Backbone:
């Protein structure tokens, strides 16, 4: 039995391959298996892809912020293209929409069309983030979660949840299993964008932050207490 019937899951760019490298088709295949299982369980699924394997301002830290952000937004198209192709090969119905500011072979986002596809059971993928610089794909994911009427936003990332400090830099950092929107923002914890959290807070959308490993998204959808819950 699943706990959530309507979700949006964001896969970080690193789920598709290492920064600066080629897309790892084996990794994409693991994502496909996860999405296929969710659909078989009757879950309506929307997906947002990060672009951190291509470009991320947090990693660059210098240069032209607008240019870096646009490079990252366009980078999501590489990930989405690989995922769409793999889903189609696996026989999974899928549709892709891109932000208005991004040019691609995919149609620009239409709320009516995307919502219809979502309700029909297609995997709906949103590419290009918000389409604007200075906003992260986390913010895009929360926005699209709200538009699709998702019950929860699952952020599937490279760490096991929200920590008191960066666990990669500080081995003494402790996992926070549950936290309020307010405390996350006030403590300036960085694994998720504070703008995204504020938007979720205003609309009472719960956020589950988990590590991307095969099976973890399905476990989270079934209600297992993985990672961190922001509510």
Residues:
């Amino acid at each position: 039995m699943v706990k959530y019937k309507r979700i949006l899951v964001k896969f970080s760019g690193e789920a598709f391959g290492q920064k600066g490298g080629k897309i790892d088709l084996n990794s994409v295949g693991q994502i496909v298996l996860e999405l296929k299982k969710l659909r078989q369980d009757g879950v309506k699924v929307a997906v947002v892809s990060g672009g951190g394997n291509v470009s991320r301002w947090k990693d660059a830290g210098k240069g032209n912020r607008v240019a870096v952000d646009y490079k990252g937004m366009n980078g999501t198209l590489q990930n989405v293209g690989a995922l769409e192709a793999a889903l189609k090969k696996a026989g999974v119905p899928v549709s892709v929409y891109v932000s208005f500011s991004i040019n691609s072979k995919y149609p620009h986002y239409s709320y009516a069309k995307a919502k219809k596809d979502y309700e029909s059971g297609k995997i709906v993928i949103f590419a290009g983030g918000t389409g604007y610089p200075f906003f992260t794909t986390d913010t895009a994911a929360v926005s699209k979660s709200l538009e699709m009427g998702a019950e929860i936003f699952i952020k599937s990332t490279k760490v096991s949840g929200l920590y008191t400090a960066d666990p990669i830099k500080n081995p003494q950092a402790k996992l926070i299993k549950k936290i309020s929107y307010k405390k996350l923002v006030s403590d300036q914890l960085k694994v998720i964008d504070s703008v995204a959290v504020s938007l979720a807070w205003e609309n009472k959308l719960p956020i589950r932050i988990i590590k991307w490993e095969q099976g973890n998204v399905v476990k989270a959808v079934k209600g297992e207490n993985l990672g961190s819950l922001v509510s």
